[in-house]
Amino acid sequence: xxxxxxxxxxxxxxxxxxxxxxxxxxxxxxxxxxxxxxxxxxxxxxxxxxxxxxxxxxxxxxxxxxxxxxxxxxxxxxxxxxxxxxxxxxxxxxxxxxxxxxxxxxxxxxxxxxxxxxx
Amino acid sequence: xxxxxxxxxxxxxxxxxxxxxxxxxxxxxxxxxxxxxxxxxxxxxxxxxxxxxxxxxxxxxxxxxxxxxxxxxxxxxxxxxxxxxxxxxxxxxxxxxxxxxxxxxxxxxxxxxxxxxxxxxxxxxxxxxxxxxxxxxxxxxxxxxxxxxxxxxxxxxxxxxxxxxxxxxxxxxxxxxxxxxxxxxxxxxxxxxxxxxxxxxxxxxxxxxxxxxxxxxxxxxxxxxxxxxxxxxxxxxxxxxxxxxxxxxxxxxxxxx
Amino acid sequence: xxxxxxxxxxxxxxxxxxxxxxxxxxxxxxxxxxxxxxxxxxxxxxxxxxxxxxxxxxxxxxxxxxxxxxxxxxxxxxxxxxxxxxxxxxxxxxxxxxxxxxxxxxxxxxxxxxxxxxxxxxxxxxxxxxxx
Lengths: 119, 257, 132
Hints:
The structure holds 3 protein chains of 3 kinds. Chain A is an all-alpha fold. Chain A is built from 4 helices and no strands. Chain A has helices at about 5-35, 50-55, 60-90, 90-115. Chain A is elongated. Chain B is an alpha+beta fold. Chain B folds into 2 domains: about 15-115, Beta-grasp domain (Ubiquitin-like (UB roll)), CATH 3.10.20.30; about 115-250, Alpha-helical ferredoxin (Fumarate Reductase Iron-sulfur Protein, Chain B, domain 2), CATH 1.10.1060. Chain B is built from 10 helices and 7 strands. In chain B, the strands form 2 sheets. A 5-stranded mixed β-sheet of chain B has the order 2-1-5-3-4. The radius of gyration of chain B is 22 Å and the shape is elongated. Chain B starts with 14 loop residues before the first strand and ends in a 6-residue tail after the last helix. Chain C is mainly α. Helices cover about 70% and strands about 0% of the residues of chain C. Chain C has helices spanning about 20-50, 55-65, 65-95, 110-130. In chain C, helix 1 packs antiparallel against helix 2 (about 55-65). The termini of chain C are far apart. Classes of the chains: A mainly alpha, B alpha+beta, C mainly alpha. Chains in contact: A-B, A-C, B-C. At the A-C interface, helix 1, helix 2, helix 3 and helix 4 of A face helix 1, helix 2, helix 3 and helix 4 of C.
């Protein structure tokens, strides 16, 4: 199982890469740029009321869970590999631990906030 | 079609200045550069320059070479900081002021000769030969392959074990255990050969952190390969195969042989 | 081989990624992973503020309105697009052998990148239509 974990982690990383490639650009544009609070186009879609309506949509909840968790898995796995290639290999264990901790906390937090509004 | 090579002779150059890294194992604490000025000849390659130095100036200069035509893989070096086969690198392309060093990311034994033991071990570990559960008797005739079957592994079969890809790979530079581009590409070559039945055996070795999952798809191995093997794509395909195989084994163990 | 001496081992250069254009593009591609993750972590904070009530969300929006946050979003978008384009190029090399051949030839990689980009635009429009 020890050896097999790397094949599975790569599979998760690869899936995350696809999700991030297809879904993250539009999320950034819609969430932070196009409807910027300073009112470049219109700040209405990101008003509190519209944000809550959007957030309560079960499809949006699923979208957030998938987008956030897979982007964290992909992005941090990738950056961790780069750190090892530029001289941080001696700190492999703590860096790996920290990365998986952030991924776990990020995913768990997303699930918590997304699902808590159901109750 | 490539543009015709600019000839330095046409530019009235008569000599070239070449700096070669030297290292004498029991005498020097670290490598140093030696400078030579040698006559320029038509269509001269870097290997010709090294041979001229050895024959006329410094008989102790030590380097590997054999076929002189880019098929044996012996003469890998760093020319102007890039991994190249010295027999295929024309002076007209690299200029009349060049630097020749041993391949990067390998321990240096003497001058341009590097220690390739780790590569030879890693190569053997991936079992780069046809593996059959039972040998086909000679009386049954030869193994037949269609051109389409050959195409599946032909590109990776062109590898001449020159190790320029190891020299270019930053992961090889940081992780001693990383199996490396050529060995992994060759394991892919044999997995894809219709005569072979050893894929599962090889995947046990290559589907690991020291194997394909140590690769970050930097792609420099493919850029420097003189035979267009594209080891990077072979490794990515092995990653996919390994990942799908592992998922199958975990979810449907009864259906996986 | 009997070794009466130790071969010389060159010290590792940790700045290898600055030594040529391809290495540098690779490094930027890897750093995009960090930037994308940072953006997601900030977005998780955003939804935590959203679920805490309107005043918390408005406080977050004030933060989001700052030039610094806007700059970060633009940088995050740039890195994400770098990831997207390089991802499509790389996966195109694998998709090339898996898609049906046309008159015996695999499609060129740029064609597969364009197809993936079209899917990206379609998915983006769908997201906008569904949620925004």
